[in-house]
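Researcher: Structure for this, please.
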Amino acid sequence: MSTEETSRFVRLRVELVVEVRDGDALTRAAVGRIAADPDTPDAERAHAESAVTEDTAEALAYLVDPFDLVSEVPGVELQQASWSAEQIDYDPDSPEWDLDEDDGGDDGEEAGGIG
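Model: Predicted structure, token format:
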């Protein structure tokens, strides 16, 4: 494919598994970020505070911003992002969690991982 035929858009898929070692600290950080945003309407603020207080996965999702992942990458501008977090049962020895597993066949995607 020539440069003119190549799309400028790239879908970057990232899957992370994190261990929450201090849920209270995570919740406090999320509530603090919500409180620090002067542009958040009161009703939305109350809903967000309730969500992050009840669920550490929601607190983490509130604190993780895809823009932060690419904002310092030269020549890249974030066009669209979606993300979510959920509590899971995690067994690092299970083949289900093999980060090196090829999930899409040979479609030209680049992969990288830590582990």
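Researcher: Any notable elements?
Model: Confidence is low (pLDDT under 50) at residues 105-109. Residues 23-97 form one domain.
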